[in-house]
Amino acid sequence: MLRRLDATGLDGLTLLVRESVQNSWDARTGDGPVDYRVELRTLRPSESPMWRRLLEQGAPTPAHLPLRPSLQRGAPRMLTVTDLGTKGLGGPTRADVVSDESSDFVAFVRNIGDSQDAENRGGTYGAGKVVFHLASAAHTVLVHTRCRVAGRLETRLIGWAIHEKYATETVHGVKSFTGRHYWGDVRDGAGQGGLKYVEPLVGAEADDVARRLGLHPFPEGATGTTVAIVDPVLGERDADEAMRWIADAMVWNLWPKMLPGADGRPQLRLSVVNEGREVPVADPTTVPHLAPFVHAYRAMDRTVEHRGLKRTLGTFGLKPLINPMGRPSEVARQAGVVERVHHTCLMRPVDLVVRYLEGPAPAEEAMGYAAVFRADSGMDRAFAASEPATHDDWLVEKLSGDDHRLANQALREVKREMREAATPRTPTDEVGEGVSLAHMSRLMSGLMTGAPGQGGASVFTPPARPGRNDSGAGGAGARHNAGQGFAPGAGHGRRTARVRYLDEARLDTLSGAPVLIQRFQLLDPGAQEVSAVLAVAVGGGGREDTPPEGAAVPEVVGWLPEAGPLVASPVLSVTEGDDRVWSLVVTPAPDTVTEMAVSAEGEAL
Fold first, then answer.
1. Number of H helices, E strands in the chain
2. Which of 83, 310, 552, 578 is least buried, going by the fewest C-beta atoms within 10 A?
3. pLDDT > 70: what percent of the chain?
């Protein structure tokens, strides 16, 4: 199993996050959030001797297990992965004991490589059991868990190493060894053919040893598990870089479970600590290249089916976007989002990311799309069977029969949707259907600090006309809503005319460039002058009267009638408000929440 995981193209720390969080999710209790924490720390001078005393005694030579060199380092480190809101590793501690209780301890510690093939579970290959050893230069971990046994709380602590099989000379001749090694309470092998075996330390003894090793105690009454990785492998990174990578890997791989649910709480609460300092874990909606997937996920509204077999395959959502500025993070690039966003996030029914499937890129470089496909629960076993040990792809060619037909159809539909999203429209001066600005604003809100509907706005209006008192607009009320505007007050001798918005504004293209479109009608009779009030939302509740120097601002392209050429002017003059349908055409400011409204003024009655 170590060799199978070591051969993956995934980064080792990304693999650790993906696999270990599946263990935590599978062990959750009830509907409450699961707390998942990764911490790196250097052992204190008082702790290092305890680690050596516990683990070096009876350990194989370095040729058979690279543990001793790790423990002899000048400043040995451990990386701990802890979950709470989980049930811990309960049940029997020996694989040969039959019990009506769950066998979580045996499944995790004893039965290496066993599949956990059950509905609504994240893992299937048992790879999550040994990913910790792969992350250890010593291939050694300590497992500290609190569970319920016969209705009472019990703490358990055991050391555990996995390495290659080997044979060596003993007093009884050449003996073969499995490469598995355990540390704990060594028991006499009576009834076991005379062989000794290792049980975990339990109760107060487990708590005391865990404390002296520097492991955090469990909160009062809580259950959960900590896996302490001896001498973690960080690759070419220093400690700061490694822990930032872990935080970013959490966001890109676990974001669906980080989103607030109906009760306002996320399913996973994540934290990263480096030598006592918290490492920020970003809100997915604030990560520029990831936020579009969040909005596509929230907008999943299409059921993907196989009509011939009458089976539901999954749910799909797609959002067009203006590509964010800058490069994605290295974690994102490893996941496949290298520059532009034109991908579908594939995920299992439990909302764990499988991979980002790249689709064709739109011809217009500024444009892209983000999509999400979540497999239906009835397809979970089929897709799980198609995954490699690392759960990072769907290899449908591994399947046969109906499973192959169903999974293949699902991916065909996803690829077809991406091809359609990338297909360029014929550049014209007429505007077609597009994505709504209300949705687009939420999509683009991930590209700035703050959340939609909070904070203020920077309002950039055209130059004031004679006789007009432009008061501007700002605050939370400045956000566009269908049927409402935030028009400036009318000047003396003029009146504010009524404007009817016909639909939500939308993202589209005009002559090959991305634009925002708002269709409207003028309801009042008489000559009128129509202008646009454009704004860029800013965080913190403030307002700016002028844009920062050098900052991009939204601009009016012109006014497009239902029949006729574009009127390329910041102000539209009409002789009569005759219910004609017009479209305000605006170039949005990149990487902003661009807001727009229509203001009309007529002569006073």
1. 13, 29
2. 310
3. 77
